[in-house]
Amino acid sequence: MRVKICFRPENEMEIIDINYNYYITAMIYNLLSKSNKAFTDKLHDEGYRLGSRHFKLFTFSQLKVKKYIVEESKIKIMDDALLYIGSPRLDFLYYLSDTLLKAERVKIGGGFFIVDHVDLLKDVRFSREERFYCLSPITTSTMEVIGNVKKERNVDIRDSKFVDNLKNNLIRKYYLLHNRLPEDMNIDIQFDKEYLNNTRGKLIWFKNVAVKAYSAPFTIKADPEIIKVAYECGLGDKNSAGFGMIEIDRKNRVGLENVCDSGI
After folding, report:
1. Which end of the chain is more exposed for a tag (fewer CB within 10 A), N or C?
2. Domain named CRISPR associated protein Cas6 C-terminal: which ranges (predicted)?
């Protein structure tokens, strides 16, 4: 499920860092903590464990802002903004919404924003084939040994390992949520060729780590329950850092509108 948060600058203009992902993650944990600190501490420190891997099982979009100016490393926000946060965990969404509904304002980095309203969005029913676009860019990585030292490397979207990693990551999340493997593990992900031929990706700094990510439209064919995992948890790595939130391309779905286009 998803929460849509609509807010506006507390003052005529609020300024945030252009690499704002970390500050939104911090805002989310702060909101959760006000409702249930024990839950928040466990989520932050441990998450949900599967073997040696830890998952937080939430993701969020880029900010969608009506009026803004980018100057060097800062974004000056002067009008309404939208943020989407998604998770398959109802407890997460309850604690988040509980605090948001009581909050008069939220803090993102050095900026303060008035919360106008919070909406819990309806569940989506998926078919075996869906087309998506990105509300936040997708990233995945691999570990390499360089000089006897293990280092994380961002995988290029044109590398076959990129899609392989996405598939494996989806299966792990599915297992974590359902305590079993899906009956049909076939997953086919096809990114738009035009995008692949013209993209260099987007570099986002999270704390002091540079993350290469891609806002690539794609088509996925899989069990609808696997597609639901991608939609609710996020696709790829670092979802809780604001990567991999996807939205259905609703242009071919009668009676539905796009939730939003690309953010800042």
Report:
1. C
2. 126-248
Q: Which of 20, 22, 29, 95 is catalytic?
A: 29
Q: Are strands 68-71 and 74-77 parallel, antiparallel or unpaired?
A: antiparallel
| 29 labelled catalytic | yes
Same domain? For 8 and 117 the reply is: yes
Cα–Cα distance, 264 to 20 (Å, whole number): 10
In a domain? residue 156: yes
pLDDT at 261 over 70: no
Domain boundary, last residue among 67, 86, 121: 121
Domain that holds residue 185: 129-252
Mean pLDDT of the chain: 92
Active site residue 44: yes
**What's the pTM?**
0.91
pLDDT in tens, 33-52: 999 999 999 999 999 999 88
Residues 115 and 134 in one domain: no
Length of the chain: 264
